[in-house]
Amino acid sequence: MFVIGNIEYLATAASTSLWSNIKETVKSEGNFSEFLTTKCQKHNTEQIIKHWKDFEIKCPEGGCQVRCDEMLECGHKCALFCHGYDMEHFNIKCEQPCLKICCHKIPCKKLCHEECDPCEFNEDGNCYYKPLENVDSIESILNEEAKVAAEEYSRNAEISFLLDGERPKFYKK
């Protein structure tokens, strides 16, 4: 049994002699300490707990201060600190952006643990977001879309210049 707190206060302030007896027994058997050492079962790291607030800092999720980084079913790494619960990650909700993309190459706008809506261009009812093979492909698709948007802006700016006679402020030639 571990008692974390002010044993001196408990021994003198209690209305019965229970805490006074516990204090004397613990001290006489050499089991009194100013700190508690915890050890992470997964990473073998040790934390010295001297104050109850140390649990929040040194063992925020019941493990240690190392990020979990276990691969979740969705393809993201677990963003929690090392945790002593749900080691299989059955109930961990991924808070990162969804990695699914539709046939129009539009990424889902929801968080990973949220259910995707049909694609915004779902005219025939057949376009839904699907998982990508790897995370790098969504980056390349988004980069390609940014290039297309920049080219479209450039074309629209040129048309605007020809029609209105004014060159847009951000137009470079």
UniProtKB/TrEMBL annotation:
Domain of life according to the entry: Eukaryota
Q: What is this protein called?
A: Uncharacterized protein
Q: Which organism is it from?
A: Panagrolaimus superbus
